[in-house]
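Hi support team,

I've been running sequence recovery on a batch of backbones for a student project. Most finish fine, but this one hangs at about 90% for roughly twenty minutes before it completes. I'm not sure whether the input is malformed or the queue is just slow. I've pasted the structure tokens below so you can try to reproduce it. Let me know if you need the job ID as well.

Thanks,
M.K.
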């Protein structure tokens, strides 16, 4: 996946990367951020910890890095959904909405 394909994926899915603490294309030293940037033709994924410690966790081509960023994004979305379900545990209406939401996402992911 290229950067343009990733940005298209984010737009189609209507994902707010700020809420997921994800950054693309620049370095941001903000606690709990995961992001990627290009430096001298090499793409890098980084993570920032609680104490603003900046660690590069992977380097690679644009396609390799954005495949990983796509996986991270999907994983973060799943975590948000699981947390939401845990918080609203036992409410049938809430569960129905989440199931509809997931079905809609699956349909959109298959179109990409």
């Amino acid at each position: 996946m290229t950067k343009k394909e990733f940005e298209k994926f984010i737009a189609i899915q209507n994902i707010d990367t700020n809420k997921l603490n994800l950054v693309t294309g620049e370095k941001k030293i903000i606690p709990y951020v995961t992001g990627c940037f290009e430096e001298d033709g090499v793409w890098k994924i980084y993570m920032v910890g609680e104490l603003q410690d900046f660690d590069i966790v992977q380097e690679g081509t644009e396609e390799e890095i954005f495949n990983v960023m796509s996986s991270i994004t999907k994983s973060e979305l799943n975590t948000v959904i699981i947390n939401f379900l845990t918080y609203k545990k036992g409410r049938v209406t809430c569960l129905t909405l989440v199931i509809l939401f997931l079905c809609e996402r699956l349909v959109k992911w298959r179109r990409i």
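--
Follow-up from support: It reproduced on our side and the slowdown came from queue contention, not your input. The chain has a mean pLDDT of 83. No action needed from you.
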